[in-house]
Design goal:
Strands 8-11-14-17-20-25-28-31-34-37-39 form an 11-stranded parallel sheet, with no helix packed on it. Strands 9-12-15-18-21-26-29-32-35-38 form a 10-stranded parallel sheet, with no helix packed on it. A 9-stranded parallel sheet has the order 10-13-16-19-24-27-30-33-36, with no helix packed on it. The protein has 4 helices and 39 strands. 34% of the residues are buried. The chain is an alpha/beta fold and 348 residues long.
Length: 348
């Protein structure tokens, strides 16, 4: 939940920096796009191709790159990175409102749980014995916190989040509705045509300033821990398998799947629906584009892609037919190369 108040444009510049041009008293209440903005709105241009929309926008003020200072006569703030400035301005204009501290009468808190006086436990939550909630932690309705689990100060859980026993969540972590932290990894051993479950005795350990999207699942380790380092951002409906380690400040878009024991470096960007095989390593500062299938380790920083773009059905069928014939064509080329090589001359 958020609430907003009005700011003068010069107040925003004083708090967030930037060079102010035009009316410093322009009143700003919210952030909006150039197309939808009206009086009281602050908009921004982070890509030069949208500068033309400045002619028609009804925004009260805009945020522009320093090089675009003359692109409009509207009141404006000039900065190095308009997109980042927009993010900061949005936080300023729409700060989160934390609910009043306390434990709802319809919550269940078992003896031995430690809950800070400033924490909030919503209705229908269950906090097991030995669990610890730090200062200003907020549990939305229906959350389950397992035995011995820990949540650091200023953590916030949306409705129906489950934290399994012994898992550790750091400070200022935001976990959205329906996420599951610490379910069993997919560990099975075959025996005589059936599967024997391998107990998953590790934990999930989440660092500080992490965000976990709605319905994302992070499995506990089989023996060692699954580790999500500081500043990682996970979108909705992501699957992180057991014993994975994700380096600090890596971001993943929706529906990424990471198989067991993969190691992903720091400051990586993983596009939506990408798939990462287990037991491989990805270096720091790697970008994996959307829907890419990573089957082997990536040892150098850079951008990696392995996907065919969409095309009409008949063309795709032709492409598949050609792919299926590649092995046969490769053998024919090898045979032709052998035949075309001149025969070695005998010694005289």
């Amino acid at each position: 939940m958020t609430h907003s108040r009005a700011y003068r444009l010069d107040e925003i510049a004083a708090k967030l920096g930037g060079e102010l041009m035009g009316d410093p008293g322009a009143e700003i209440r919210r952030i909006a796009t150039l197309e939808s903005a009206g009086p009281g709105d602050l908009s921004f241009v982070s890509n030069a191709k949208y500068l033309g929309q400045l002619r028609d926008t009804r925004a009260s003020a805009v945020v522009l790159a320093k090089g675009h200072r003359n692109a409009t006569d509207l009141p404006r703030i000039l900065c190095d990175d308009p997109y980042l400035y927009y993010a900061r301005a949005a936080q300023l204009l729409s700060p989160e409102v934390r609910p009043a501290p306390g434990i709802h009468p319809q919550a269940v808190v078992e003896p031995g749980a430690e809950i800070a006086p400033s924490a909030t436990v919503g209705p229908f939550c269950h906090v097991a014995r030995g669990a610890r909630l730090g200062e200003r932690v907020v549990l939305g309705p229906g959350c389950t916190i397992g035995e011995g689990a820990q949540i650091g100060e200023d953590g916030r859980l949306g409705p129906s989040v489950t934290i399994y026993p012994s898992c550790v969540v750091g400070k200022r972590v935001l976990i959205h509705a329906g996420a599951v932290i610490g379910a069993d990894g997919f560990g099975l051993a075959p025996e005589g045509g059936r599967w024997i479950k391998i107990p998953q005795t590790g934990r999930v350990v989440i660092g500080d300033d992490v965000e976990v999207g709605a319905n994302t699942t992070i499995d506990r380790g089989a023996l060692d821990d699954t580790v999500i380092e500081d500043g990682v951002k996970l979108d909705n409906q992501i699957q992180i398998a057991h014993n994975v380690r994700i380096g600090a400040h890596t971001a993943m878009a929706a529906k990424v799947g990471v198989a067991g024991s993969a190691r992903i470096g720091k400051h990586c960007a993983i596009g939506g629906a990408a798939r990462i095989m287990g037991h491989i390593e990805i270096a720091d500062h790697v970008t994996v584009t959307a829907t890419t299938f990573v089957t082997k380790s990536i040892k150098s920083a850079g951008t990696y892609t392995a996907v065919l773009p969409a095309e009409p059905g008949r063309e795709w069928a032709r492409t598949v037919a050609n792919l299926r014939s590649l092995d046969r064509l490769s053998k024919r080329v090898s045979e032709l190369e052998k035949r075309s090589k001149p025969k070695a001359r005998g010694k005289r």
